[in-house]
Design brief:
Helix content: under 10%
Strand content: over 45%
Shape: globular
Radius of gyration: 13 Å
Number of strands: 11
Oligomer: single chain
Largest sheet: 7 strands, mixed
């Protein structure tokens, strides 16, 4: 049974940082591209970052230069380092590997 569990979300002030983790079990993540998505209230789910099996990353324009995706295949974990957070980054963040999704972790950026 494949399971993805996100963690690291929370409430942070504008300009702050958070590091999200996605721990995978039941799947060898080394074979798959990993992705981070987010969904704000009333909006469609948005692709934020992709991390290839060789740690090549791509980002949406809205987070480029502020967010950094990475992975540790040996630990079956994918990460999203989020810096210079803005209120518009507030959303539930989801990890996606192959066809599997985590339950999401809430990120709220507010003063």
């Amino acid at each position: 049974q494949v399971r993805l569990v996100e963690s690291g979300g929370g409430l942070v002030q504008p300009g702050g940082s958070l590091r999200l983790s996605c721990a995978a079990s039941g799947i060898n993540i080394g074979f798959y591209v990993a992705a981070w998505y987010r969904q704000a209230p009333g909006k469609a789910r948005e692709l934020v970052a992709t991390i290839t099996t060789r740690n090549i990353t791509n980002y949406s324009d809205s987070v480029k230069g502020r967010f950094t995706g990475s992975r540790d295949n040996a630990k079956s974990t994918v990460y999203l380092q989020m810096n210079s957070l803005k209120p518009e980054d507030t959303a539930v963040y989801y990890c996606n590997i192959a066809r599997f999704w985590g339950q999401g972790t809430q990120v709220t950026v507010s003063s």
